[in-house]
């Protein structure tokens, strides 16, 4: 017998596939434009970084590059504001830098909604998420913490918020967080000057 939890998981995965595919197709002209401008901005418009996925498995997250190529690979809130390019600042402010992550969603490494994937070097956050079973689910592009303006600079609060989101998760909240993100709720991962 298939459990309700399993049925809900399958529904969410199906929604992820359909919405990510449609999003990638619809955003293709914009993606090509951002890639073109990105080549002039940094000469390397895509940013690929190893992140912590479901069940603590590593995966390669892809975004549009918003920082200089030689920027040290640390959590965003630890990066110098000077590392962000003017075009990168625009991408971050409009959240357009997240578009390539739809590919991660389509591949099954992420969901549209879930805890933001962290770096393996963020040991405090990983520890807090472990005890709250946050790694039992796929990481997401957006979620309760993101629309609430909570980022990785507060590991305990973030892990607690992730846990709350998972416990209250439903198809209704799935769409709620997506709509709130599209309408501009939350700040994304802030850099030092944005605090």
Account of the protein in words:
- This protein is mostly helical.
- It is built from 8 helices and 4 strands, in the order ααββααβαβααα.
- The chain has helices spanning 4-26, 28-41, 86-94, 101-107, 123-131, 144-147, 155-167, 171-182, and strands spanning 46-52, 58-64, 111-113, 140-142.
- The strands form 2 sheets. It has a two-stranded antiparallel sheet. A two-stranded parallel ribbon has the order 3-4.
- The longest helix has 23 residues, at 4-26.
- It starts with a helix and ends in a 13-residue tail after the last helix.
- The mean pLDDT is 89.
Key terms:
195 residues; mainly alpha; two-stranded parallel sheet; globular
Over all CA atoms, what is the radius of gyration? 16 Å
The amount of beta strand, in percent, is 5-15%
**Assembly state here?**
single chain
The H/E string reads HHEEHHEHEHHH
Report on the biggest sheet.
2 strands, antiparallel
Structural class: mainly alpha
Question: How would you summarize the topology of this molecule?
Answer:
Elements lengths: L3 H23 L1 H14 L4 E7 L5 E7 L21 H9 L6 H7 L3 E3 L9 H9 L8 E3 L1 H4 L7 H13 L3 H12 L13
Parallel strand pairs: 3-4
Antiparallel strand pairs: 1-2
Helix pairs in contact: 1-4, 5-7
């Amino acid at each position: 017998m298939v459990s309700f939890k399993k049925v809900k998981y399958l529904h969410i995965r199906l929604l992820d596939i359909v919405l990510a595919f449609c999003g990638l197709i619809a955003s293709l002209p914009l993606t090509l434009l951002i890639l073109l401008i990105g080549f002039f901005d940094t000469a390397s418009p895509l940013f690929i970084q190893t992140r912590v996925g479901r069940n603590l498995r590593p995966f390669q997250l892809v975004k549009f590059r918003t920082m200089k190529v030689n920027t040290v690979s640390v959590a965003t809130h630890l990066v110098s504001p000077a590392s962000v390019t003017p075009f990168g600042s625009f991408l971050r402010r409009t959240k357009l830098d997240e578009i390539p992550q739809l590919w991660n969603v389509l591949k099954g490494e992420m969901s549209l909604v879930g805890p933001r994937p962290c770096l393996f070097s963020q040991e405090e956050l990983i520890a807090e998420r472990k005890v709250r079973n946050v790694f039992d689910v796929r990481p997401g592009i957006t979620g309760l913490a993101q629309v609430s303006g909570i980022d990785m600079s507060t590991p305990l609060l973030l892990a607690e918020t992730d846990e709350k989101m998972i416990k209250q998760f439903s198809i209704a909240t799935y769409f709620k967080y997506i709509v709130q993100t599209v309408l501009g709720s939350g700040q994304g991962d802030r850099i030092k000057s944005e605090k």
